[in-house]
Specification:
transport; Rossmann fold; 13 helices; alpha/beta; signal; four-stranded parallel beta sheet; about 40% helix
């Protein structure tokens, strides 16, 4: 299995050298590690590689050495992902690993980055443990996390009358963490969790889980999963006629999943996201460039936009130090300087590695109001950073003093 993974990494390797860069000194190497062929391939996959390359190109020839982007498929298998990360850090001189959907793999990579004194930036991973007890001085959590997604949706829907919840949850660290955080928000708002059903990654038939949720009498059926699992669950919920008195809440649903769900089947669905391609002129300009390079013409989602934003900030930190050699020093520089880019705007990286920026409430458009194409959502609210993210003192990160 490792041989297959390593071979795939080599096949997917690409090199990005801005035109004026001369091959002098050690190149900076960035590895995009994600799901290229499974349930998260649309959410990250080649799109995250495109975003990383665009960031390198937009940063330009400011380091004086080549910046190389390589990529590999972790197949959603912890042993495969860990083997690739270890090889990259120990043998292939990779300075930064970025993206890494699948929280179990991300937690393993965070530990390796600490041990090897390299850098890890999670954009696709969700678990809030990356800035909690498992935080490291070598890792940053960029785009979203389960605390923010779960608490935001739990609070919003409970305030709208959704007080009785039943969860359909992906049976691994990410799904359990997402359910836990949403449940905390629901109970804090005076609601009740009636139960949950756990499903394996890559489930195609959600009928038994949906029937359990429907029979529970819950006001809200919370989907604590992502990618193709969420798409399949939403489509089947619509086919079963679940709706009306019961609301289906997709805690993680982004733009690239919407063609598979369809606008008619997702009426009334609200999601929380750090980025939406049609929010402003900067997001639209980036989406136009990204879509022109994507093999299927997809617009970017929040996690792919996060890869772009994260790589830009990482390169600024390397530029300030004039070296990528000391991963701990690079992350310290990333925390010391404010973040700012066209997609996420001004922000910062907190002591626990949490990247701070606003989140946006997106609501599906009525079918009659959509222009077609990728016009699925309207931005209906903004959650400021001080409300969006877990308070620094509550995470249990050992890097936080006092």
């Amino acid at each position: 299995m490792m041989k297959t993974a390593v071979g795939l990494a080599a096949l997917l390797a690409v090199s990005v050298m801005p035109g004026l860069v001369q091959a002098q000194g050690k190149p900076v190497r960035i590895g995009v590690l994600n799901d290229m062929s499974g349930i998260y391939a649309d959410d990250q996959g080649p799109g995250s590689v495109i975003a990383a390359k665009m960031a390198v190109e937009d940063f330009g020839n400011r380091l004086g050495v080549p910046v190389e982007v390589i990529a590999a498929d972790h197949q959603n298998k912890t042993d495969v992902g860990a083997a690739i990360a270890r090889r990259w850090y120990e043998q292939d001189s990779v300075d930064l690993i970025v993206d890494v959907p699948n929280s179990a793999i991300a937690l393993a990579v965070a530990g390796m980055a600490r041990d090897q004194n390299r850098v890890f930036i999670a954009s696709g991973a969700g678990t809030s443990e990356l800035t909690g007890k498992s935080c490291t001085p070598n890792s940053v959590h960029w785009t979203y996390d389960t605390w923010a997604q779960g608490h935001s949706m739990g609070q919003i829907l409970a305030a709208q009358g959704g007080k009785r919840w039943y969860f359909i949850t992906a049976d691994y660290a990410f799904g359990k963490d997402l359910e836990k955080n949403a449940a905390e928000a629901v109970t804090a708002a005076g609601g009740t969790v009636l139960g949950s059903a756990r499903h394996p990654l890559g489930t195609s038939d959600f009928s038994s889980f949906l029937l359990q949720a429907q029979a529970s009498g819950a006001d809200v059926i919370g989907l604590a999963n992502a990618g193709a699992d969420t798409v399949n669950a939403l489509k089947q919920a619509a086919e079963f006629g679940i709706g009306g008195q019961q609301r289906v809440a997709a805690l993680i649903l982004n733009i690239v999943g919407m063609p598979g769900v369809g606008l008619a089947a997702s009426q009334g669905v609200s999601v929380v996201s750090a980025y939406y391609w049609d929010r402003n002129d900067n997001s639209r300009e980036f989406a136009k460039r990204f879509s022109a390079r994507h093999p299927r013409g997809n617009v970017p989602n929040d996690m792919q936009a996060g890869v772009y934003s994260a790589v830009l900030h990482y390169l600024k930190a390397v530029e300030s130090l004039k070296s990528a050699a000391d991963g701990r020093a690079v992350v310290a520089a990333m925390k010391a300087m404010p973040t700012d880019d066209p997609l996420f705007g001004p922000g910062s990286v907190r002591a626990d590695g949490r990247k701070l920026h606003p989140l946006y409430l997106l609501t599906t458009k009525p079918v009659k109001d959509s222009r077609g194409g990728w016009d699925f959502f309207t931005v209906t609210g903004t959650i400021p950073p001080e409300q969006a993210w877990r308070p620094l003192a509550d995470g249990g990160c050992p890097l936080v003093k006092g």
